[in-house]
Amino acid sequence: MLIKASDEIKNIQKYSKTFENAGDLDNLIRDAGKAKYVLLGEATHGTSEFYSIRAEITKKLIEDYGFSFVAVEGDWPSCYEVNKYIKGGSEYSTVREVLKDFHRWPTWMWANEEMIPLLEWLTEYNQNKSSNKAGFYGLDVYSLWESIEAIVSYLKETDSPDLEKALKAIECFEPYNKRAEQYGMSAAFLGESCREEVLHLLQAIISNSNRYKQDDAENFLNLQINGLVSKNAEAYYKAMITDDVHSWNIRDRHMVETLDLIGNFYNKDAKGIIWEHNTHIGDARATSMEKEGLENVGQITREKYGKENIYAIGFGTYSGTVIAADRWGAPHKKMAVPNAQRNTWEEKLHRAGAFNQYIQFTEENRHFFNKTIGHRAIGVVYDPEVEHYGNYVPSKVSERYDAFIHVDETHGVTPIL
């Protein structure tokens, strides 16, 4: 069915609801609360409102709907320090201090002022619980060296016979000076890989799981996932040099594999909240990503757990400011987010009403919003002057998400310095 542009605007006006604060999102949160996993997206990695709104949704899902943990697009070792802090087992004395443990660029993704209220709330929430405390974990694959170092540290502390395998793995990676691209080039073109060492290490951890579980169940989860990161990061950095599609898929499959381990740690019925960019949580099959052979967390979790058990919420903005960098590894800066391009998803939402609004996609209205349309995505590297060349992902929005939250004018996060 061909839908005219004017009809699209009318349909947005008919089915969207305005909101001013999280209390106005109760209907959306109630429906999301029925799922096993709620996937909360973001159109950028540096927008204040996305963090704040996700935090309020997260609190309600945990307190009112029994969700057990938050898992984010962040490194496992740094996020695990946050997890220890909110559960009362950290050496850090304040949230601000623990967030400064995020050393890998882009630090502002998690070391920002907007994260502090949520983590303080989680800490207070956990204080009165003797078990089943709410957790905070990282799903990403980048922390190769940090994860191996964490494994070595733990195996030394427990006087483990697997320490030798961990030392061999870290020794293998030492010549690359923690430079991922250097290792990737060597592995991809010279055949000088550390694959065998990390596989032996992970196999040893799994084989001796009963020994490690006797120490502490969550310590074992930490050991197990650091081992998984070591294996998958090695493959990721090798693939990154020669095959962008393969490396992307390694990363998102890793995130789902990690999510599965976290869920099993709590129990088979545990419910979790995932914070990641829209490009990860929105089903890739409803975008141009599918033609490129890309999979993502949104697609894989729907396939693995069933569509009825996943509730994906996309986020977007019409204009404002954002924290990003103009090249990889460069210092962050506040940048202008220009008005969304004409006839894109964000621009039509703005044209339908220049205010904050959300839409839940249902059997009644889904067909009105499944036409392919440009949908803005801003990463940690951004150039507002040329965003029309590559920052709009062709998407069938109502198939990509279960709901969408639009903040008409947004502001950059405040990094912790």
Automatic annotation (TrEMBL):
Annotated Pfam families: Erythro_esteras
Record GO biological process: methylation; response to antibiotic
InterPro entries the record matches: Emycin_Estase (IPR007815), Hydrolase/PRTase-associated (IPR052036), UCP036794_erythomycin (IPR014622)
Record key words, sorted: Methyltransferase, Transferase
Recorded GO MF terms: methyltransferase activity
Protein name: Protein-L-isoaspartate O-methyltransferase
Annotated source species: Niallia nealsonii
The organism's taxonomic lineage, starting at the top: Bacteria, Bacillati, Bacillota, Bacilli, Bacillales
